[in-house]
Amino acid sequence: MTDTIKSPRFAVVDIARGVAIIAMIAYHLCWDLSYFRFIEANVGYDPQWVFIARSILSVFLFLVGVGLVLGHGKGIRWAAFWRRWVWVAAGALVITIATWFAFPDSFVYFGVLHAIALFSILALPFLRAPLWLVIIVALAVIGVHFVFTDPLFNEKAWSWLGFWQIPPPANDLVPVFPWFGAVLVGVIATRLVLASSLAGKLLAIQPTGRFARLLTTMGRWSLLIYVLHQPLLLAVLFPLAQVTHPEIAMRSTDFMNSCQQSCVDSGTDAKLCVTYCQCGLENVETNDLWEPIFTGTITPEVQTQLDASNRQCSALIYPELNSSP
């Protein structure tokens, strides 16, 4: 695999990347607005938002597979591969460091860029492997995730593989199983297209309008945009939240700190406490219990909600409680 021939550049792929990066920015903007309570939606947990996030992630990883085939399917161009890989890995490191300081309890240790860096290497043997083998591996990587779990993978050290029963706290976690399968699907689709008459039709698509050219440019610079967009959003929204509603902006942090301290003091493992308290925070926000909690005006109805939340969150970290009568 030493051939250095590069496939023609498909503008339609850059346009697709541009659309995907806009979708990612829009999602993260909504996540930030939710986190700072500018909007009521619980973007991190509501099923419809989780579906949107996973859909955008699927497209991103699919396009990684597409780009690998177009760039290296006729022979790996090692210099170009490692040059881009270093930029992806550096971006992943920046995100880890930044989130370590911003969200120490849920920093990003294996997010999108970490996954892309690893998946790009793992996918190389499949760029020219028999297509039937790539299909089988893709189905296995995606499918095994749905039939196998083990408590071992609840730990951060192994969670990047997937298979957890309780995901460890992280603002972004993209494990090998099933997400490497999305890259392989991109590899499969691109190899099929290149072997068909559709390749010529797609190659002929060129950006003609201003917006299409903008999408193309964003697609070509998607890595830089991905690394920079969230810090820029936070740089605007965090100080704005401090000015407009400082008590709301900080109450989630105060709740988590207080809950985790009480949980650890009770003898529960610190990692389990993070999961327990995040569950409790979600229930407080979903049921709008901030005022009674902070004022101490706990009515019987509110107490019933808090007791139900405690049972739910306790069962989350101690699954055996689910089987209790």
Automatic annotation (TrEMBL):
<keyword id="KW-0812">Transmembrane</keyword>
<dbReference type="Pfam" id="PF07786">
    <property type="entry name" value="HGSNAT_cat"/>
</dbReference>
<protein>
    <recommendedName>
        <fullName>Heparan-alpha-glucosaminide N-acetyltransferase catalytic domain-containing protein</fullName>
    </recommendedName>
</protein>
<keyword id="KW-1133">Transmembrane helix</keyword>
<feature type="transmembrane region" description="Helical">
    <location>
        <begin position="82"/>
        <end position="101"/>
    </location>
</feature>
<feature type="domain" description="Heparan-alpha-glucosaminide N-acetyltransferase catalytic">
    <location>
        <begin position="9"/>
        <end position="231"/>
    </location>
</feature>
<feature type="transmembrane region" description="Helical">
    <location>
        <begin position="221"/>
        <end position="241"/>
    </location>
</feature>
<feature type="transmembrane region" description="Helical">
    <location>
        <begin position="49"/>
        <end position="70"/>
    </location>
</feature>
<feature type="transmembrane region" description="Helical">
    <location>
        <begin position="131"/>
        <end position="148"/>
    </location>
</feature>
<feature type="transmembrane region" description="Helical">
    <location>
        <begin position="177"/>
        <end position="200"/>
    </location>
</feature>
<dbReference type="InterPro" id="IPR012429">
    <property type="entry name" value="HGSNAT_cat"/>
</dbReference>
<feature type="transmembrane region" description="Helical">
    <location>
        <begin position="107"/>
        <end position="124"/>
    </location>
</feature>
<feature type="transmembrane region" description="Helical">
    <location>
        <begin position="12"/>
        <end position="29"/>
    </location>
</feature>
<keyword id="KW-0472">Membrane</keyword>
